[in-house]
Amino acid sequence: MEMALNNKTALVTGSTKGIGKAIALELAKEGVNVLINGRNNEDVEEIVKEIKTAYPATTPLNAAADIVDIQQREALLEKFPDVDILINNMGIYEIMQYEEITDDIWEKYFRTNVLAANGLSKYYLPKMLENNDGRIIFIASEEAVMPSGLMPQYGMTKSMLLSLSKSLSILTKGSEVTINTIMPGPTLSENVQQIIEGLYTDEDMTFAEKEEHFMINNQPQSDIQRFIRPIEIGRLAVFLCSPYASAFKGSPIRMDGGMIPTIY
What we know:
Elements: E1 9-12, H1 18-29, E2 33-36, H2 41-54, E3 61-62, H3 70-79, E4 85-88, H4 103-131, E5 134-139, H5 152-170, E6 177-184, H6 190-199, H7 207-218, H8 230-241, E7 252-255
Parallel strand pairs: 1-2, 1-4, 2-3, 4-5, 5-6, 6-7
């Protein structure tokens, strides 16, 4: 089924790899002109060329910027003042002991994982409401509702995104603009794949075997017993961006592979 997104424009933050790149690719597959964002200009250019080659009917553009930096963020908004879709994907994470998390680290995570996304949303939302059309999606995590304790500073920011999404969604009442949050479970990003490969150095093991062993021993609560593939999250994001998902408003949408044990 086509998603009726042809010729829409989408800004996908942190889209040079992982979930962000997958979302950008899946949007481009539906005819969306994607704005590729990352801090490294060369990385951004590489993805822009990759998407243009794969989907030549679309016009992917370089939106390189460190969106945590207010001046760079404002310059980006000035360069791309109008988008139909905003995917707030960019974020940082790291396993940390609670007692080692300083106030500076807390603030860094807040500025990176929350305020950058809020700054973009604050700019684009009024324009979307004026046009009575638009989509904003925040990428959170199962950590938002089921903190593991391994990354308190990360989990806090992802919980905040759920609250922010709901608050902003209330402002869209009566309009065709929607704001929602996707909560992925453990996902096979490039970084995660490298970690798994590094944990199991036995050359006779296939990656599938390494993945299975890791999940059994480290993620027993997962129902799918494998990592979620970024493309799976990409397809979900595409649906949420489509006209067919207009009834999703302020929704925290779980795509966690069964990690969260509760029924709601």
